[in-house]
Amino acid sequence: MKYQRPKGTFDILPEDSAKWQYVEKKARELFKKYRYQEMRTPIFESFEVFSRTSGETSDIVTKEMYDFYDKGDRHITLRPEGTAGVVRSFVENKLYGPEFQKPVKTYYMGPMFRYERPQAGRLREFHQIGVEAFGVDSPTLDVEVIAMAIDLLQNFGLKSLKLALNTLGDNESRTNYRQALIDYLEPYEDQLSADSKERLHKNPLRVLDSKDQADQKIVADAPSILDHLTPAAKEHFETVKSLLDALGIEYVVDPNMVRGLDYYNHTIFEIMSDSKAFGGKWTTVCAGGRYNGLVEQLGGPETPGIGFGLGVERLLLVLEAETDQLDLSDPLDVYIVSIGEKVNAEALKLVQALRHQGFSAERDYLARKPKGQFKTASRLNARYTLTLGETELEARQANLKNMATGEETSVALAAIYGDFATVLSKGE
Ligand code: ATP
Ligand code: MG
Fold first, then answer.
1. Whole-structure pTM value
2. How confident is the model at residue 329 (pLDDT cuts 50, 70, 90)?
3. What is the pLDDT of residue 330?
4. Ligand 1, from 153, 314, 315: best to mutate by most atoms within 8 Å of Cβ?
5. Residue owning the nearest CA to atom 16 of ligand 1
6. Residue 289 maps to a domain
7. Residue nearest to atom 8 of ligand 1 (CA)
8. For an engineered disulfide with 233, which of 105, 160, 190, 229 has Cβ 3.0 to 4.6 Å away?
9. Residues in domain Aminoacyl-transfer RNA synthetases class-II family profile (predicted)?
């Protein structure tokens, strides 16, 4: 029997994890500057948390849910996205209360699950870093969230980026638009894909999001939501655009963009990259928008919200294609070369003492010859080696070698146990 990872999943191996840690660390540092705090919610939730919010005609609900009944017959889903779980928790824990400073700014990072057809940058288990901000309806927050997403990607050294922007307006705008869209699409009904036919009357906005090429041709000339906005929705969008202008952030308005989830309204956006990682094809790395109404949908008081999700695998594909941005070399401070069984206990004490002093330190465990141990020290990028043989042990000394310069000195063990940093600074 040969075991294999499930289709559409992958293992993050030791040699890869530095990249993941790098991305997560940089994101945390940036979020801190904007006063976002981490939230960790369960990886599985009640099925309804997603089915009620993503939209019953969305790809996520119709095709992609990893759902099952647990032994207590509860309908459970592995989370396909981050927002609904955060909102569920926001409501359950009453984070809307007056003691919490508005906007309540949160972020998360972790795995998401969608039953998709696996391909490059599209997996069944993938990872998102996302933010959600609650309690402020001002377009200023929309722009701050967008600016933060761009900051994040630029911090990773991503150069060629495109910000696509649209608005879905408020409920009234969408009701008006919905009818206009149905009127436009109905004559093409026979030519639409099966999915789009199904969605035409249930949720015509979904047709705009179709990946089917024939659908996309029809949709290209569809009426624009921008012509159906209420004055208030229009003003919100105009302010978003003028504040983006004020920050010097370039954008392209894409009036056909709707996003894959039903809970969005007002501002929606995608940040795309045409990196060689995607064969030069514009690909969405980060996407988000406003979701006023979602908190109420999950049982909370009227509370506006806005956020985005970043696909970590897609980000890493870009980073790997433009590797000049990535310096993940992680040298070892000290490697202990031990010669002979008699020095074993002392070598162990030494390596532990160095670790306790804050150094990264490693030793040999296989009683190998010194030559092999030095080879390992080089492979591990050790900055220093400390060699301990029987003669050294008797003299209570070790041989310190600077691996970069080749310079060697004899050092008292007592000095190393006292403070190795001082030993090193004297040597320089
Ligand atoms: P698409 O239209 O590509 O299916 P979506 O609308 O389903 O995207 P979102 O739900 O907005 O995507 O997810 C935000 C980001 O998460 C995407 O821009 C992408 O970077 C990433 N993402 C989404 N689904 C996957 C997946 N199956 N595998 C890897 N990354 C994904
Ligand atoms: Mg999708």
1. 0.91
2. confident
3. 81
4. 314
5. 311
6. yes
7. 260
8. 229
9. 23-331
